Amino acid sequence: MMLAVYSLFIVSCSQNKQEHKHEHNHQEQAEEGHDHEDGHMHEHAEHGEERHSHNCGQKHDEEHEQEAIPGAIAFTKAQASRINFSIEKPRYEPLGQVIRTTARIASDQADETIIAARTSGIVVLAGSPVAEGKIVNPGQVLFYVSGSGMADNNLSVKLAEAQSSFIKAESDYNRAQDLAQDKIVPEKQLQQSKSEYESAKALYESLYKNFSEKGQRVSSPSSGFIRQVFVSNGQYVETGQPLISVSKNKSLLLKADVPARYASLLPLIYTANIRKPNNPETYSLSDLNGKILSFGRAVNEDNLMIPVNFQIDNKAGFIPGGFIELFIKTKSEKPVLSVPQEAIIESQGVYFVFVEAAPEQYQKRQVKTGISDGIRTEIISGITENESVVGRGAVSVKLAEASGSLDPHAGHAH
Predict the structure, then answer these.
(1) Could you give the residue ranges of the DSSP H alpha helices within 68-100?
(2) Which positions ≥6 away from 375 have C-beta within 8 Å?
(3) In angstroms, what is the C-alpha Rg of the chain?
(4) Is residue 65 within 8 Å of residue 372, measured between CB atoms?
(5) How far is CA 263 from CA 96, 222, 255, 267, in A?
(6) 186-220: string of b/e by CB count within 10 Å (b at 16+)?
(7) What does the DSSP 8-state code read for residue 285?
(8) Using 50, 70 and 90 to split pLDDT, how confident is the model at 103?
(9) What angle do CA 288, 293, 299 make, to 5 degrees?
């Protein structure tokens, strides 16, 4: 009986184990199936994102290609930021006949002082050599004119005599003042004594100020530079002979000659533009606080030209004796379309500008030019006033065109 019950218990336990194992296996299969389904869905999602990303990039590139203008030169904002770059609008303005010539730079007469000898004698250097272009300060002694050893013009003797006369005249005047108070000396004699005293004093102070035991002091009357030296060390000079000229170099004269055919335009001159040779920088007359001084009413017999003179402040480092390019402007009532001179690029006798076709993209456009005043140039044809052109930096855009190494999509701003 016990044996039968034990056998029945073992069979029941075995069945329970098999049923539990079957349920466990079924649950694992279900979980694996779920994981497989999730993985398949995740993989599908990733493929969808890649496909979407590819389509988006392709669409973006297509849009990018559409924005690039055929034949345009790409020049980015980053490139422009590294140079002096500007975009200019052509504008209508009066631009009359321009007379292009050269002018000689000279020191202003009111700005230059010539020092002459006040006595005859020998020129003796005061110290360092006196050379043209040397910077000098007010009162700086440059050399002496010495009469030492000369029987007819001994400055030491003259100074001693003047000092003695001054001392005597001062003593006589002081005594006459005392006697005049006691009514011993008449008023007329007092005034004569005073006059002699003042004359002796002026002569002595003049000699003492300008002369020494070494001779006449030749000193600079102001700060500036030595413009010209007329004598050399050891040279004998006469009274009144020029010794040296000193220039402040603050004000200059521009002396130009223009052909006689422009005679009728000279009364219409109102300003000028100035440029140093081989230098693109141009100054207007107003930039240099300049003005028109005069123009000739007759032809110069030496060169058959008419002189025109301007005055300017030396703010740009001009050197007297040199030459500058001058664009003399005359008045005009007729406005013309013009652009800055720097916007125009010349190539084999043909002129071009770079027109802004789109942001960071420029088209090379041939133009026909007219008159120029050195700062702006007339445009007869090729562009309109509604377009924009590259002003400063046009040469860099030309180099970008020539290099051909820029990204064709560089004009697109991301």
Answers:
(1) 77-81
(2) 273, 282, 284, 327, 340, 341
(3) 48
(4) no
(5) 15, 40, 16, 8
(6) eeeebeebeebbeebbebbeebeebbbebbbbbbb
(7) T
(8) very high
(9) 130
CB atoms within 10 A of CB 339: 26
User: Distance between CA atoms of 323 and 308, rounded to whole angstroms?
Assistant: 14
300-358 pLDDT, tens digit per residue, is 888 889 999 999 998 888 888 889 999 999 888 788 999 999 999 998 889 999 999 99
Distance of CA 309 to the CA centre of its chain: 23
Tell me the per-residue pLDDT of 29-70, one tens digit each, with 9 for 90 and over: 434 444 444 444 444 444 444 444 444 444 444 444 447 788
- Distance of alpha carbon 339 from its chain centroid, rounded? 21
Structure tokens that stand for 322 in this block? 């040199």
Tokens of residue 194, six digits? 């005073």
Q: Tell me the sheet residues that pair with 146.
A: 122
Q: Which candidate, 25, 103, 44, 11, places its Cα nearest to that of 374? A: 103
- DSSP class of residue 118 equals S
Instruction: Read off the tokens for 91.
Output: 């504008």
Contacting residues for 313 by C-beta, under 8 A, at least 6 apart = 250, 251, 252, 288, 289, 290
Q: Residues, the chain, total?
A: 414
Q: Can you read off the two tokens belonging to residue 338? A: 């013009």
